[in-house]
Specification:
Elements lengths: L7 E2 L1 H5 L1 H15 L1 E5 L5 H15 L3 H5 L11 E3 L16 E6 L24 H26 L8 H4 L5 E7 L13 E4 L5 E5 L6 E4 L5 E3 L6 E6 L1 H6 L9 E3 L11 E8 L6 E2 L3 H5 L8 E2 H11 L6
Parallel strand pairs: 1-2
Antiparallel strand pairs: 2-10, 3-4, 4-5, 5-12, 6-11, 7-10, 7-12, 8-9, 8-11, 13-14
Helix pairs in contact: 2-5, 3-5
Length: 313
Amino acid sequence: MTDFFEPIPFPLWKTDKAAFAEKLGRSFRETGFAVIAGHPIDAAVIDRANDAAKDFFKLDADTKEKYHDAPGGRQRGYTPFATENAKGQKAADLKEFWHTGRKLPEDSRYRQTMKDTPVVPEVPTFDPATRAFYDELDEFGRTLLRAVALHLELPEDWFDDKVEMGNSILRLLHYPPQDNPPPAGTVRAAAHEDINVITLLLGAEEAGLEVKHRSGKWLAVNPPPDALVINCGDMLQRLTGGVLPSTTHRVVNPEPARAKFPRYSTPFFLHFNQDFVIEQLPQCLAEGGKAEPPITAQDYLMERLREIGLVKA
């Protein structure tokens, strides 16, 4: 563990919110990432979701393909191996994944642009396990945004009504074993930035996550077992004019000794409500932040999904 990612103890939030917010904000400013130790997400909920995900990825290709919604931009359900590419990259990433989205009220105004998550009867535990995991990550993400708000000198609840119905996504990732050397120029996940506000990521069983520091050096992120990694996404970077940066990161191919082991990962991408207009905070512009035109969260998302190949232009 590098000193850049010294874990921030979450219990500090309950005793000294200002101190926790300062530590989180300082880590974000330096690297765009932070490691939170002692997170409140139930270990049993995590284990059930991980087990259900592994059972899903064991299904045959034809069964998984039933849940592939290419016309919908693959924002819900299954995305096959080697479909997504990082922005600016021609080679596809060596992964397959599943998206669980928000469960909307029947009368929600977002129903036209946010689909329901498909039901997976082939894995009886899948739907309840992944929904419970989604709900815990969603709640914890909102708590962490309260700390971000304090760091930005905003009211603690400033983000609450701006993300409560956001198009947030739980991604269940499977990087299959590499029984043969991968094609030249490919990696498990090429260097990229996240589109959303913040991303919450629990530690993967296999190493590989690296963050590009502003010095240009790649730093390995290997959180301890009870820790969670959080990083700024492009939407938070845009909101703050770059004061809180969305940092480039990647998942590199394993060393030969670990190549035959699969890698599973569960990032939670927390999004603004689709009609929220992203424009720079005045205090961030006063600090030297970059001014950009206002844009709704939905328009920004679709722009970026086209860039990474999940939505065809």
